[in-house]
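From the shared-data thread, chain only:
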Amino acid sequence: MNRRIYWLEAILLAGGGLALLPIDGRMTAGLLLGGVVGILLFLRTAAFWNAMLDAGVVTSSAGHFLKTYGIQGIALLMGVAFPQWFNIFAIAFGLVSLKLVIFLYYLIPWKGGTE
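Structure, as C-alpha cells:
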C-alpha cells in the first residue's frame, strides 16, 4: 500500500480527533485508540498474507483471523471497561477508518491515476 493512504488515514484521525476534542475528550481518545489498533491489525494482516504468498502454500488462516478479531474485541472491550476514558463508538469508527480511507482512495479518481 502506498504512503498516500497512510497520510490520508493520519489526516482523518488527526482531523477527527481535533474536531471531537471540544465535544468530548473520550471520543478523541477512542478514535485514536481504534485508529492505531486498526492500522496495526492491517499491517499484521498484510505481513501474514505476504508470508503465505512467499511460502507458496496457503495454510489454514483461521488462527490468524481469530486473533485479529480477538484484538478488535479487546479494543472494543476497553471502551466498555473504561467508559470514563474511551467512547466505544469512536473506537469502532477508528477500527474501520483505514478501510474507509482505502475504499474512498480507490473509488475517487486521482490526478495521474492511482498508484
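The helical segments are 3-20, 25-55, 62-81, 88-107.
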